[in-house]
Amino acid sequence: MLDDDIRTTTSATILADGDGDSPRRTGVWFIGGRGSVATTATLGLHAVSRGLAPETGLVSQLEEVAQAGLVGFDSLVVGGHDVGTHSLADRAAELAEGGVFHPALVAALREELDAADRRIRPGVPAGGHQREASDRIQQDLTAFRDEHGLDRVVVVDVSSTEPPAPDHPALHDLDRLEQELDAGRAPLPPSSLYSYAAFRAGCPVVAFTPSTGPNIPALADLAKEAEVPWAGRDGKTGETLVKATLAPLFARRALHVRSWAAMNLLGGGDGRTLAEPAAAVSKTTTKALTVQSIVGYPVEGPVRIDYVEDLGDWKTAWDHITFDGFLGTRMTMQFTWQGCDSALAAPLVLDLARLVARAHEVGESGPLAPLGFFFKEPIGASTHALDEQWATLTRWCARLAPTP
Amino acid sequence: MLDDDIRTTTSATILADGDGDSPRRTGVWFIGGRGSVATTATLGLHAVSRGLAPETGLVSQLEEVAQAGLVGFDSLVVGGHDVGTHSLADRAAELAEGGVFHPALVAALREELDAADRRIRPGVPAGGHQREASDRIQQDLTAFRDEHGLDRVVVVDVSSTEPPAPDHPALHDLDRLEQELDAGRAPLPPSSLYSYAAFRAGCPVVAFTPSTGPNIPALADLAKEAEVPWAGRDGKTGETLVKATLAPLFARRALHVRSWAAMNLLGGGDGRTLAEPAAAVSKTTTKALTVQSIVGYPVEGPVRIDYVEDLGDWKTAWDHITFDGFLGTRMTMQFTWQGCDSALAAPLVLDLARLVARAHEVGESGPLAPLGFFFKEPIGASTHALDEQWATLTRWCARLAPTP
Amino acid sequence: MLDDDIRTTTSATILADGDGDSPRRTGVWFIGGRGSVATTATLGLHAVSRGLAPETGLVSQLEEVAQAGLVGFDSLVVGGHDVGTHSLADRAAELAEGGVFHPALVAALREELDAADRRIRPGVPAGGHQREASDRIQQDLTAFRDEHGLDRVVVVDVSSTEPPAPDHPALHDLDRLEQELDAGRAPLPPSSLYSYAAFRAGCPVVAFTPSTGPNIPALADLAKEAEVPWAGRDGKTGETLVKATLAPLFARRALHVRSWAAMNLLGGGDGRTLAEPAAAVSKTTTKALTVQSIVGYPVEGPVRIDYVEDLGDWKTAWDHITFDGFLGTRMTMQFTWQGCDSALAAPLVLDLARLVARAHEVGESGPLAPLGFFFKEPIGASTHALDEQWATLTRWCARLAPTP
Amino acid sequence: MLDDDIRTTTSATILADGDGDSPRRTGVWFIGGRGSVATTATLGLHAVSRGLAPETGLVSQLEEVAQAGLVGFDSLVVGGHDVGTHSLADRAAELAEGGVFHPALVAALREELDAADRRIRPGVPAGGHQREASDRIQQDLTAFRDEHGLDRVVVVDVSSTEPPAPDHPALHDLDRLEQELDAGRAPLPPSSLYSYAAFRAGCPVVAFTPSTGPNIPALADLAKEAEVPWAGRDGKTGETLVKATLAPLFARRALHVRSWAAMNLLGGGDGRTLAEPAAAVSKTTTKALTVQSIVGYPVEGPVRIDYVEDLGDWKTAWDHITFDGFLGTRMTMQFTWQGCDSALAAPLVLDLARLVARAHEVGESGPLAPLGFFFKEPIGASTHALDEQWATLTRWCARLAPTP
Ligand SMILES: NC(=O)c1ccc[n+]([C@@H]2O[C@H](COP(=O)([O-])OP(=O)(O)OC[C@H]3O[C@@H](n4cnc5c(N)ncnc54)[C@H](O)[C@@H]3O)[C@@H](O)[C@H]2O)c1
Ligand SMILES: NC(=O)c1ccc[n+]([C@@H]2O[C@H](COP(=O)([O-])OP(=O)(O)OC[C@H]3O[C@@H](n4cnc5c(N)ncnc54)[C@H](O)[C@@H]3O)[C@@H](O)[C@H]2O)c1
Ligand SMILES: NC(=O)c1ccc[n+]([C@@H]2O[C@H](COP(=O)([O-])OP(=O)(O)OC[C@H]3O[C@@H](n4cnc5c(N)ncnc54)[C@H](O)[C@@H]3O)[C@@H](O)[C@H]2O)c1
Ligand SMILES: NC(=O)c1ccc[n+]([C@@H]2O[C@H](COP(=O)([O-])OP(=O)(O)OC[C@H]3O[C@@H](n4cnc5c(N)ncnc54)[C@H](O)[C@@H]3O)[C@@H](O)[C@H]2O)c1
Ligand code: NA
Ligand code: NA
């Protein structure tokens, strides 16, 4: 059961020329590069590199994962697209004021933030002439790679969550998609346009948001064709993370879950976006799957995401669970999670960039099922249980390990 | 890391003559047979056998565990020792009134309860002439086995938690122990006396309480010598179960746990016993180990058990956790668990009896490390993480599986 | 500030002929007489009368309230309307199975339940010829009064919550309303039709639901004209009760409430009704007013009501509050309320019937502001703070007290 | 019932010469002047005076309280005793780092903090020659009053909680006490020695800690004799505040409280002190009284205070309440309070200094029962219910109001 998630893994012998220690320069290209997650990741990358902060939260620094032979933090260069124009330093100052990290870090890393800021290019809005937009994105990616002498560039989508995209035949068929783009039309939601351009430019993609992104048949085919790997979707950082950890308890103790209700309160930019019901649909859909998929039967209960401006980046979730034990005895569990969203997401984004870069290096392509550990909706994988995902991830990392 | 817990497993070939379907009659002998856990287990065994209740809560009925080839519920016969004299039916009625199970079950199973009641023999108090007491216990066990034509009898300790036993040289040396017993002295706490007698009678032991029981060098040697397996200690049913499930989340996401405080409120007989500080020491000690052992560093925070008579069997636990994320950001999680203690413990007691019986059947002896999944203090095992314990348990069950 | 709520109170001298001890027979007529609240109230009335249950939950038995000189439980006779046809005894058995009260009470009071059952008349649906329907309701009320020799009948609306009623000129003008009814039309929502008929029959009304009921100008005028008192609306039994108690803490300690988010989970018949968004609007609107009205400024935060079938009558609410203290320090409070809705509502319904009957006896008419203590939306009163409501209620009861 | 708390109130005519607007210079003398509460109060006083912070948390700025005619913040001068020697500015910086207030305030008010620092005199330890110590304290107080031209000095005890003092005949008899002091002995706990010296110097006292302080017969007599008022004891800032607010809900709804369990987690200096069981006794005793006193019958349940260093000043309390409703139905409520202790206590300390100064001005003496609103153990008052305390406080303030 654990093994079916690691279909894509290449054999250890191919890894022989991979070398965990060689200075492989790698680009991390953030779609939404001026957002909270990207800003925290950018600042944090430099803080950790320069020894100003510990490695807390970085899964890729745990021995079981690091064994994969990942690129060093020193070798990462950050760039990105964003439709916003505020400076990274300003956003970082705001986040520090909101308690996401210590203000001293912003002062100490001002130069690094400004340099990264200059590498952020204007994003593309919805609609327009998507062939032209795609060409421009590819040029940005290629220019970035060339200018910084990068071995590869991983595109990481951390832009605002989109509403679910209306269906279109072009999403299901790559040829049809190319025709539409050539015709100057705009069949793709922006997140998918970025993925299209990334794959065309030979770049792996991390879909950290619940938006459509690479997750349509036409782009899945393109990724295979272009021989690039991708991973998604929707980073698992808070309430769903706890669900994925707790639900196995009920399954393995043969306790019957009768209801699981979830309320999420959040402020911040992401909260504002999700306050719009259309965008929230993408999110609550991916969140609701977790429990049912782990226990193996439908479980009633609402999943709510509500905007509370005052909470800022501090997402607060309350879950209430009723379950039956032996002889039908009814019991209850509830938890409250008070997490800082950007501080939880940022290290995962760096972990994913490093892991996907390594997968690219050893020649993997298509959806990377072993990365399900990181996602609310683990594309290509069959389990939502965190423990099984961890076992799968670490076995995969062991296989990616460079031979000594 | 996972594998070091299954040292005791015998090879699959030995299992060839084990046959999961043959009618192997097995005795379950409860020390504390009139207590809440034993009463619920006795009632529940018959309720499930007769199809009056679903299999909820029975881990041994999950496919991954059942594959070990376990004795059927129909083939279990319950007996026991207790120092109390109230009837099983009366205790069952009390538990039903307290909401532990439906009153209709007590009415429907009145006959079975009365029959089991007649198989409960007077327990032994602390002190006295322990050689004589031990002989009497052995006779009780042998008579039970003979009278009911049992293939084996598993002794399950679900009696009141003892205060920690004072140390004595006889606890560390089997010869010395025998001399003390022969001399008419009483070096053993009652729980260990029962284990001694069980081993001498060739019976496997399940130490479901935090009392000393079989967990002293002299008895460990005796079990090996007598070639009987045993498992312990202290059933993991509530707050510690959640700890064992949640702590891995922090470890695997590289989140640093700064404090973990736990308050347990409980009424009932067990609550009354633990309200005495001396008895509580045994319990809070085993509970505190879990988190530290999983995350790998010391974590501050009190562990409290308080008696609230009004709660009866409904144990309520509140845990409050503080942790650091990326860049040192402080976050908080808390949970409240409202579980029915006896309803949680009773099925595990049946699971353990079946699993230990199977281990005995295939010739295992000594502490059964793969059963750590069930215990707060998993004797012989190195991990407290529930997911690793599950993986170990199910692999062990696969090896015990009868060859077709 | 406290005093402006008791405008309607008549002077103590008028009360001279009121006599708290005389056997004044009083009818309690439930709209929704077969629902959970009405069933629990009916059963409970008899349980308390016959000494089978303590007076827990009955505010009208507290000395400060009882001093008003209320009719005895023995002198209450229950009847009602309902559109459903299941028997009271069946509903009571269901509620007992769900843990609302002990099954033994249902057995012991079977006769009383059956007698009450026979006094429940068919309810009226929405629409139809409302003059005819009203006439029939009035006849039912008058027949009940005559048959049982009652001094008065208090009509208590505990029927299913309606969606908000569409506005209509007839709701604002009694003459216009009469014309519409005469013309065979149906301008009123059912809850208001019952109130219309009650007032016409000279009966006081308790609006325990959030439905429109008597709370429209045309009916307010009618009540004055008919010289009958009424009280409303929406019984305050759970989360709002806690809000009304806690919000004054913040106000009086000058702590600034920044957000107050509320999630309500409930099953049962009421939960099913509220699961329909249209009906929920009535409820969330009255719930949201409380905090803002007490602290005196707008407070952000969602108010959710979600249906979780499994919870049955056990409403579970979680509220999360953020607030500022001295120097702007941010703090948090949260609470979880696990209440049994019908057990909380039923005694209030009896309290209100007794209090409104007493008000009628002493000649009060129109909305009874001093009863705000009982309601989420206290008609006629200016405060939502429970402590001020309590002070107002008890002072009013002191004035209603029969002179010795 | 409400009125019996305001026995000490002088009549309004006496207040005629009191004038709320005249510049009455008032000293606030902190015992424990370098502690967290005193530091926050000192910083906050200047922050509010200079308009750098809003008046949040200051009860004395609410209209109902301010009407008493209180001295302006500009007219307060801070001094104190402390046995510690760290600077106020250093402690303030630490508190800011711990999130108690914004670091910018420390920078902006550096000068004011340093000036206050210079007015803190060495404290007296336990034991020694208490007559000499008392003389020195009186000299410090008199010198402070003279140097700053103060109309009066209010002594506020915010020093570390003492263990309960051993009883001694001198505590019960003022003459006997004087003899002991003259004889060079040390019968008083330090907190009471400070109170003794304060009363001798004609200064009112606020006992904000649970220590003995003025609360012994000998000192009560001295205060009367010296015609100075005092108030105490143990500021009500967190879990007890919520208890005092919530318990009336149960009382007034006739709900029967069956158990009320409380767990308090706290770090900081106060937490460290209370981690010593002897000191904690003073605290848990005053905390446990609240509920029982409000509902009027004994309620079982533990009250725990545990030290969790990591929490710093952020006290986290969890309370779990079980109660019966109508027909004996069992229900549950729980709350979690996450408050910043110093930010909650500091404004109350300023409120109390202003209110006690006003009482002194109008000639009140002895324990000020109307200030029970502020204390866990309200000396001289009969109620613990926050709402009744609020009513009493505001009526008292109305009587203190200067005539226009
Ligand atoms: N923080 C978490 O824990 C977490 C977890 C899972 C998923 N996510 C997802 O990550 C994303 C980012 O979250 P955030 O908190 O940083 O949000 P944010 O609002 O702070 O940042 C989003 C950024 O995307 C930019 N953007 C919007 N449309 C764009 C476009 N078409 N092209 C380029 N840039 C565009 C915005 O200008 C903004 O700077 C969200 O979709 C969120 O749902 C976050
Ligand atoms: N219920 C749970 O979730 C759980 C979990 C882990 C461990 N346990 C442990 O299981 C044990 C039983 O719990 P319970 O709730 O049934 O308690 P209980 O008090 O209801 O029952 C204990 C029984 O042991 C009997 N007993 C006491 N001393 C004895 C002796 N010397 N010989 C024989 N019998 C003796 C008592 O008379 C009583 O009938 C306790 O030690 C408890 O700590 C329970
Ligand atoms: N239980 C509480 O704590 C509480 C608190 C405040 C308000 N309320 C309100 O009390 C009402 C009753 O709650 P419940 O739990 O008993 O609900 P319920 O669904 O069990 O009962 C409602 C009853 O009303 C009847 N009914 C529906 N339409 C009718 C009509 N037109 N004429 C006559 N009868 C009609 C139904 O047949 C049903 O028997 C609801 O409106 C609820 O919102 C309840
Ligand atoms: N913060 C709250 O919410 C709160 C509420 C109620 C009561 N209290 C009480 O207020 C007191 C102060 O709390 P804190 O958090 O500021 O504690 P703290 O430990 O930060 O400060 C106490 C100060 O008292 C000084 N001190 C000790 N013994 C002394 C002595 N003999 N003479 C003079 N100074 C002495 C210490 O040096 C220290 O500076 C404690 O007793 C606490 O229990 C606080
Ligand atoms: Na797990
Ligand atoms: Na109150």
Automatic annotation (TrEMBL), chains A, B, C, D:
Residues forming the Myo-inositol-1-phosphate synthase GAPDH-like domain are 238-342
Q: Which GO terms describe its biological process?
A: inositol biosynthetic process; phospholipid biosynthetic process
Parts forming coiled coils: none
MF terms from GO for this chain are: inositol-3-phosphate synthase activity
InterPro entries, alphabetized = Myo-inos-1-P_Synthase (IPR002587), Myo-inos-1-P_Synthase_GAPDH (IPR013021), NAD(P)-bd_dom_sf (IPR036291)
Q: Which family does it belong to?
A: Belongs to the myo-inositol 1-phosphate synthase family.
PANTHER family xrefs? MYO-INOSITOL-1 PHOSPHATE SYNTHASE
- Name of the protein in question: Myo-inositol-1-phosphate synthase
